[in-house]
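Open question from group meeting: does this chain pack into something compact, or does most of it stay loose? Before anyone orders reagents, we agreed to write out a predicted structure and look at it together. Recording both the input and the output here so the notebook holds the full record.
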Amino acid sequence: MAKLITSADVVATMTVAQLFSAPIILENWSSDNAWEAEDQVIGDSRMSLDKKLNKGYVPAPVELTMTFEPNSESLLVFDALAAASKAGRTVYDVSLELAHKSLGQKFSFLDGHVIRYKPNPGGAKLLKARPVRFRFADIIPAGM
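Structure tokens returned:
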């Protein structure tokens, strides 16, 4: 039997140890585009004049965007994180885990921080969802 590919059973847990005493379960994501990780850069190459392809591993950060409905309680956490960053003129270390129950996999995003977020929803027929963008040093997939 094939595994289900639903997003509805994914649990996201965020840790910001410097600000919050326990991990936070993120909830009420946008159903249109709940989360999206950018392609991970693995390596690069260049061709020499005598047609030899020279290649190598290139470490690169992983960017992840999570999008929340405008009435998500999770946005209060990001509002507090942004306020603390502005007040302290610093960024806070963030780690995040996405547990995909239907796939039997979890993805750990390590050593990151919030790089931008939308502080208010856009106006439309229905208020628009609010994205939060992270940058992490690494992503590690594993079984559950």
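Observations to bring back to the group:
The beta strands are 10-15, 24-26, 35-37, 43-47, 53-57, 62-68, 94-100, 105-117, 130-143.
DSSP finds one helix and nine strands in the chain.
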